[in-house]
Structure formats: structure tokens, C-alpha cells
Design a protein that fits this description.
Blueprint (H helix, E strand, L loop, with lengths): L7 E8 L2 H14 L5 E7 L5 E7 L5 H12 L1 H4 L3 E5 L4 H6 L5 E3 L2 E4 L12 E4 L12 H16 L5 E4 L5 H10 L3 E5 L2 H13 L6 E5 L6 H6 L2 E7 L2 H6 L1 H6 L1 E13 L3 H9 L3 E9 L2 E8 L2
Parallel strand pairs: 6-7, 8-9, 8-11, 9-10, 11-12
Antiparallel strand pairs: 1-3, 1-4, 2-3, 5-6, 12-14, 13-14
Helix pairs in contact: 1-2, 5-6
Length: 297
């Protein structure tokens, strides 16, 4: 007999402005640990946006209100409500209202939409740990779109997903190429979530997931140099990784970077241009930039 699920706690808010909803989503996902909190942002039929956070434990309501206020203002924060859900699967509940998100040939979806993915699309099913990794965030969509662009012209043999999170990018690369990839993350729980998602998507035998800081692990040397690197992290870490990444690239390698706000893109491009990588494409989605660079050496 299946044990009863524990009560979970929910914070919910409806926001008329999509940009404000995205700011609230980003603020909450940046602050709360993804293994204990599931956060979703989605458009409602009435045109408004809804942001919902499910907590394993009762949250500090004042803290949540402060985060929402800082992201979207006092008026938005005043509409925040809290309640308790009895005996429900809180991760599943947070995903039920999310719609499939297309990006090039890829579609990121939940289990409830598995049967709705068209045969000519590559489905990526994600059921746990929301944050940046579901495809509903502009950075992930940008990376997937650029990955599709790269794979139309090349078939990179050695692929690295640096800062893999939920593993979306590694899954996409492995499925599209029917080939192996290396995925790394600094956060041990993220590595476990990624491994679960690799198995869920049928690429558990193709993608190796490791816990590593930067390029410190031996796997980077043994599996490189890389023909394609995907790194959806944040602007400052990306700038710091420019030199070590350049040392692990094959000639004419492609590099896809994201996790940076539009105004941060110029500094990141400059850091990589100084290491011999030139910009090829620059996508802007919902205030976030995704870059495709190519090594010239």
C-alpha cells in the first residue's frame, strides 16, 4: 500500500504583466533550493500570469513577500496568498499547468503532455526540479534553439553540458545526435536530478553526469577536447570560465552560452573574443541573452 503523501505548502500570485511574472519567478528560483521547492510560471486563459511555489516545509511568508516585492513591487506582493495542500504530490501539482515549450526541433514537456508531442519533434520530459532547467525559462529556450541551429550544419562528436542543472541540454544533444555527452554541475542534488532525467528520457547510457567545479575534474581532459560546449550558468561565472574553457576546445568548436541578462552579453562576448572565440549568433528571449560562439584556432 502506498504511504500517504505529506501536506505541502503553497504560495500563489496572479500577475497581469508577463515581465513582472518572470522577474518574480527568477527571484524565487534563485533563492530557494530546487530540491525542496517547485516553482512554476504560466499564462492563464484570462491573459494574466500565475506564479506558484510549492514548499516541502512551511515557508517564511515575510521572506517570500519581500522577494516578490523586490522583484515586482509592493502592489504585486500584496496579492500573494499562502495555503496548505493536503496529501498531494507537490512537484506534480506545480507542473500540471505548464504547457509544452518548443525550441527548434525540441519540445520540453511534462509527463502529462507526453502523448501530445508530434512525431517530428524531439521531446524532452522533465518532471522534477524546476528553476532554469525546464525550458520555460528564456535561457534554456535560447540554448535549445541555438543547439538546433548548430546541429543542422555539424555533428559534434565530443559534447559537454557545463552546469547541467536538470539535464535538458545534455538530453537534447544526446537525443539529436544519438551520441554520447558529458554533463557536469557544481551542485550534488542537481547531478542526481540530471541522472534521473537522463534515464527518464532514454539517454542514461549516453550521458555521463559528474559533480565538478569549473573544469577541475579529470573527465574534462579525458573526454575532451570538446567540439561543442553548452553552458547555461550566469554571466560572472561564464566570464571566469573563458580561459579554462578555451583550453578544452577542439579547433572550430562551437560554444553556446546563456544565463546572462541582455546588458551583460557584451562583457561576456569580450571575454571569449579575447580567447579566440567569435560571436556567430545572439538570441534575446524575455530579457535574457543566449550566445553562439565559434573557436577560430
Amino acid at each position: 500500500m502506498t504511504a500517504a503523501l505529506p501536506a505541502t505548502h503553497r504560495a500563489n500570485i496572479a500577475i497581469g504583466d508577463e515581465a513582472a511574472a518572470r522577474r518574480v519567478f527568477d527571484a524565487l528560483t534563485e533563492f530557494f533550493f530546487e530540491g525542496e521547492t517547485a516553482i512554476a510560471a504560466f499564462a492563464r486563459p484570462d491573459g494574466r500570469w500565475e506564479v506558484t511555489a510549492h514548499f516541502a516545509d512551511s515557508p517564511d511568508q515575510a521572506l517570500v513577500r519581500m522577494l516578490v516585492k523586490n522583484a515586482a513591487g509592493e502592489a504585486v506582493a500584496s496579492g500573494l496568498s499562502f495555503d496548505t495542500l493536503e496529501a498531494t504530490d507537490w512537484v506534480k501539482a506545480s507542473l500540471e499547468d505548464l504547457v509544452p515549450v518548443p525550441a527548434g526541433r525540441f519540445v520540453v514537456h511534462g509527463r502529462h503532455d507526453r502523448a501530445r508531442i508530434a512525431p517530428n519533434r524531439l521531446g524532452i520530459e522533465i518532471e522534477a526540479a524546476l528553476a532554469f532547467g525546464t525550458g520555460h525559462h528564456g535561457t534554456t529556450r535560447g540554448c535549445l534553439t541555438l543547439l538546433d541551429h548548430v546541429l543542422k550544419a555539424h555533428r559534434p562528436r565530443r559534447v559537454l553540458d557545463l552546469g547541467t542543472g536538470t539535464g535538458v541540454l545534455a538530453i537534447a544533444a544526446a537525443k539529436a545526435r544519438h551520441g554520447r555527452a558529458l554533463a557536469s554541475d557544481i551542485d550534488p542534488p542537481s547531478v542526481e536530478v540530471a541522472r534521473d532525467n537522463f534515464r527518464l528520457n532514454g539517454v542514461g547510457n549516453l550521458v555521463r553526469a559528474i559533480r565538478a567545479t569549473g573544469f577541475s575534474a579529470p573527465d574534462f581532459a579525458s573526454r575532451g577536447p570538446f567540439d561543442l560546449v553548452l553552458a547555461n550558468i550566469l554571466a560572472n561565472p561564464l566570464r571566469q570560465l573563458a580561459s579554462p574553457m578555451a583550453r578544452h576546445l577542439a579547433p572550430s568548436a562551437s560554444v553556446i552560452l546563456s544565463g546572462l541578462l541582455n546588458h551583460q552579453a557584451g562583457a561576456v562576448i569580450a571575454a571569449y573574443r579575447a580567447r579566440g572565440l567569435v560571436p556567430v549568433r545572439h538570441l534575446k528571449i524575455e530579457g535574457w541573452s543566449s550566445l553562439l560562439l565559434r573557436a577560430t584556432g
